[in-house]
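Reopening this ticket.

The earlier resolution said the output was attached, but the attachment link was broken on my side. Pasting everything inline this time so it's all in one place.
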Amino acid sequence: RYKYHNEKSAAKFLLLATLISFCLDFALELVLLNAIRNVAGDDGSITQIKDSLCFTQGGNEGQDALATLAGTIGDLALANIVLAAIGALCDVGSAVTDCTKARNTAYGLVPALLAGAAAFLELLLGGYNFLFQT
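Inline output:
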């Protein structure tokens, strides 16, 4: 009985920790997406510098490359937002199925597997973004 109680407490802690990490990642990616929009958007600082015509001798290529890079980082941030939302919803689904009798069935296993897959895909996207986009 004591061992079962410790395992259940550890599972609840792990569920809470992953839910918090998905929610924090969701919020941080929204901040990143907002910053990208401020830099590379239609009225962002890259566009303003380009429109000022201060860099007339080959400077626009560098600004175009920066705008493209910022757009790619923004797209990956949007993908991470979607994955964080899926992971958080799956964690909530795991909590709901844990409170019902479905936790030992396939219905209880699916949300946990989806949350793990979302976390793994976020890790891959983050690593790709770090290695190739910065």
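Reporter confirms the inline version is readable. The chain is about 85% helix and 0% strand. Helices lie at 2-40, 45-51, 59-99, 106-133.
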